[in-house]
Design brief:
The complex is a heterodimer of chains A (466) and B (137).
Chain A lengths: L2 H19 L10 H26 L4 H23 L15 H24 L5 H16 L21 H13 L4 H27 L1 H13 L2 H7 L4 H20 L3 H17 L2 H15 L4 H32 L4 H6 L2 H7 L2 H17 L7 H12 L7 H23 L4 H27 L19
Chain B lengths: L2 H28 L8 H8 L1 H6 L5 E6 L8 H14 L3 E2 L7 E5 L6 H6 L2 E8 L2 E6 L4
Parallel strand pairs in B: 1-2, 1-3
Antiparallel strand pairs in B: 3-5, 4-5
Helix pairs in contact in B: 2-4
Classes of the chains: A mainly alpha (466), B alpha/beta (137).
């Protein structure tokens, strides 16, 4: 079977899995575009988990792995089909619509972003430095090796053999399907991650706040051109950003529509974030913490406690795979190793490191993503002009709380990093901020007043005068 | 739609469109001038014959032109690319292995290598040589 056909099957696997977990009536349903936008991520995540378990741990043949992926898709489709019989229709989207000229602007921006991706990938089909020294290198090891000790050997510690395997695993699986190391397929996988990082928040905002704010949300995410540039470089930072925004958006959707099913999917996406890059582990903690820190009262707290098992169950399914890899196969992480030393205690009380890191964050906030005007200014102006929603619920604040926790975590990692701090900040900070960019933009549009809604929002109840 | 709201929409849309457009113009300008075959593919091809000769697992050393600092960015990139080309064999950035891959850009004579304790096993052209370190037998 060709790699392209298998890639299509992976998208189908993601879609039917989303429908199996979060059912909808058989006909095309209101939230199906959101399920479809998340499908490449879910499909590739599930397939890489199967590849890891069967090929790397149990040493089964590639044909058996591909067979298992297809069987899983068949099983998920059967569950989705039977679940559709009694499924309630999806919550209808708000009726607010965007003017045609705004759709045209989004179309132009998306077309330019797509062509830019094609040209960048055409000029560097193997990706940039981290792609061929970490991610695609690991994929080559997994594709070419007949045993799976060498790929994780500490002899090549500079390749970070402890890094999780979602991206290399899915690339190796697709290469097995084609029988060669096609760079076109790695490019297609890279493109799907960029696409989902924009499409998932677009459809989530469309369902929750209407198409006008959704179009502006997608335009804003695309304005950080590093998303396309780093996506075409085939680094794992864009896949991580895609999983982070999917987890955050589905969690908000589940909370705002009072539905546990999308929350399980949110947990699954957060788990896949941890299976993509080590920073995803921190995100699982950030998301679970934000789930509670964004409560808006005691009844809301009870609701959050009710939904917590769904969120954690989704996460734990994937974290079990990541945990097995970390504990049984991968050497210890270089940063974690170094943090055990006495030097760690010296670094944590060195206030100069806090100062340097703080100013690096400020600088990056002002120049992030090659946006023409610093995003912090754009969104300050935006919120000043359109104002906040009249009733900003706790769930709407969740994405911004989650990314704040994530950024505090990144700050702490920089302060204690064993490597040269300036070098570490210069080489990684723009990519780390990109991880949270799509979710940050989604958070801004979730709390913005719906300026496209023709009907006025209901005002808060006025207490009766005594 | 009030002028204030319209202003907010136009500013967000304009910043996005101009940012995406600027990168598009920069890349469109650079892309036609990019080499037909990218550097990584070209580098990879130099190692194809050597890779075919290597076993499916094992460790091999790495040696490049004398006088190049290990901290040199280009030298580091070439070492990483050599590992990318030769996976799943592990390539260590040291000649202290029985078999060593030589990646040379300057002419190196068999005699000078022999003086350093290396026997030439096979030359593959384009500066790629498989060596045997006679001190590590």
């Amino acid at each position: 079977m060709g790699a392209w056909l298998l890639l299509l099957f992976l998208i189908l696997l993601g879609f039917v899995s989303a429908r199996a977990i979060w059912p909808a009536p058989r006909v095309w349903s209101e939230a199906d575009p959101l399920r479809l936008a998340a499908a490449p991520l879910l499909g590739m995540g599930i397939a890489s988990g199967i590849f890891f378990a069967l090929r790397i741990v149990l040493q089964q043949s590639p044909v058996a792995v591909i067979g298992a992926v297809l069987a899983t898709a068949g099983l998920a489709a059967a569950v989705a089909w039977s679940g559709a019989r009694n499924a309630n229709p999806d919550t209808p989207a708000p009726r607010a619509s965007a003017p045609v000229w705004l759709w045209i602007l989004l179309g132009i921006a998306a077309a330019m972003a797509f062509l830019t991706f094609l040209m960048l990938h055409g000029a560097a089909p193997h990706g940039e430095w981290d792609a061929w020294s970490i991610w695609n290198l690991r994929a080559r090891f997994l594709f070419r090796a007949q045993e799976f000790a060498s790929p994780f050997s500490s002899v090549i510690e500079w390749t970070h053999p402890d890094y999780p395997l979602l991206v290399p695993g899915v690339i190796a699986l697709l290469w097995h399907a084609s029988g060669d190391e096609s760079t076109a397929i790695t490019g297609a996988v890279g493109f799907l991650f960029v696409l989902s990082a924009v499409a998932v928040p677009f459809f989530a905002i469309k369902l929750l706040r209407g198409s006008g704010l959704a179009v502006l949300c997608a335009l804003s995410i695309l304005s950080a051109t590093s998303l396309v540039r780093i996506g075409a470089s085939l680094y794992a930072d864009v896949p991580l950003a895609a999983f982070i925004v999917t987890a955050g958006a589905l969690l908000v959707y589940g909370l705002e529509t009072d539905s546990a099913r999308p929350i399980f999917l949110a947990g699954l996406a957060a788990g896949f974030a941890a299976w993509t890059k080590n920073e995803g582990l921190l995100f699982c903690v950030s998301l679970a913490a934000a789930h509670f820190l964004s409560v808006s009262g005691l009844p809301d707290l009870r609701r959050r406690l009710r939904y917590l098992p769904s969120l954690l169950a989704g996460m734990l399914v994937v974290l079990a795979i990541a945990g097995y890899f970390k504990l049984r196969m991968a050497p210890a992480n270089d940063l974690v190793n170094a943090s055990k030393s006495a030097v760690f205690r010296v670094r944590i009380v060195d206030f100069n490191r806090y100062w340097v890191t703080f100013w690096a964050f400020v600088g990056e906030f002002l120049t992030f993503g090659n946006v023409l005007v610093p995003p912090i200014i754009v969104f300050s102006v935006w919120l000043a002009l359109v104002r906040l929603r009249e009733s900003v619920s706790g769930a709407a604040l969740l994405p911004l709380i989650a990314i704040t926790i994530q950024l505090i975590g990144y700050f702490g990692i920089y302060v204690t990093t064993p490597t040269d701090l300036d070098w570490q900040l210069n080489t990684s900070l723009p990519r780390l901020l990109l991880h949270v960019w799509p979710l940050a933009v989604t958070g801004i549009f979730l709390i913005s007043k719906d300026i496209f809604d023709p009907a006025p929002q209901p005002s808060a109840p006025v207490s009766r005068s005594k | 739609m009030t002028p204030r709201v319209l202003g907010a929409i136009v500013s967000v849309a304009a910043v996005s469109l101009l940012s995406v457009g600027r990168l598009f113009v920069q890349v469109s300008d650079f892309y036609p001038k990019a080499p037909a075959i990218d550097g990584v593919t070209e580098f990879d091809r130099r190692f194809v014959a050597l890779r075919a000769m290597l076993p499916p697992k094992g460790i091999i050393g790495y040696l490049t032109d004398p006088g190049i600092s290990p901290a040199d960015t280009n030298a580091q990139a070439e070492y990483h690319l050599a590992q990318y080309a030769l996976a799943p064999v592990l390539v260590v950035n040291s000649p202290e292995q029985r078999f060593v891959v030589g990646n040379f850009h300057r002419t190196v004579t068999v005699g000078s290598l022999r003086d350093r304790g290396f026997k030439t096993v096979k030359e593959f052209g384009n500066g790629i040589v498989l060596l045997e370190n006679e001190k590590v037998r």
